[in-house]
Amino acid sequence: MAQTAIPIVMMVVAAAGTAVSVYSAAKQGEAMGEARDREAAQLERSAAQSRHAAAQKAEDTRKEHLRIMAAARARYGASGLEMTGSPLLVQMESMAESQEELRRIIEAGELGYGTQMEAAGEASKQGDQSVTSGYVNAAGKLTQGVGVLDKIGRDYKWWGQP
C-alpha cells in the first residue's frame, strides 16, 4: 500500500501545483489588463484636461487681447486720432495676430488631446492583450501539468502499459 500511496501523493501534488499555476497565470493576466485599463482611463482624463486647459488659455488670451486693443483705442481717442487709416490698420493687424495666436493655442490643446487619446487606446489594447496572454499562459501551464501527471502515470504503469 505504501508503494501505491507515493505515486498518488505525487499526482495530487502535481495536480494541485498545476491548478495553482493555471489560476495564478490567469489572475496575473487579468491584473495586468485591469492596470492597463486604469492607465487608459487616466490618459483619457489627461487628454480632456489638455483640451480644457487649452480652451481656458485661449479664452484668457482673447480677453487680454481685447483689453489691450481697447486700451489702444482709448489712447488713440485721447490723443485725438480717429480710428481710420494707420490706427485702424494697426488694430486690424493686432486682431489678426490675436486670432492666429488663439488658433495655435487651441491647436496645441487638440494635439495634446489626440496624443493622449492615442496613448489611452494603446494602453487599452495592451490591457486586452495582457488578459489574453494570461489565459494562454494558463492553458500552457495546464498542458504542462497534464504532461507531469501523464509521466507519473507512465512511471508507475497506471495507464495500461505492461
Q: Could you please describe the fold and organization of this structure?
A:
The protein has 162 residues and is mainly alpha-helical. Helices cover 91% and strands 0% of the residues. It contains two helices and no strands. The protein is rod-shaped and about 115 Å long.
Give the tally of β-strands: 0
| Unreliable sequence segments | none
The dominant shape is rod-shaped
The SSE string, one letter per element, is HH
Number of helices: 2
Classify the secondary structure makeup into a structural class: mainly alpha
Average predicted local confidence, pLDDT: 87
Total discrete domains: 1
Distance between the termini: 20 Å
Provide the descriptors you would attach to this structure in a database record.
162 residues, mainly alpha, rod-shaped, single chain, 2 helices
Q: What is the secondary structure topology, with strand pairs?
A:
Blueprint: H1 2-78, H2 86-155
In short:
The protein has 2 helices and no strands.
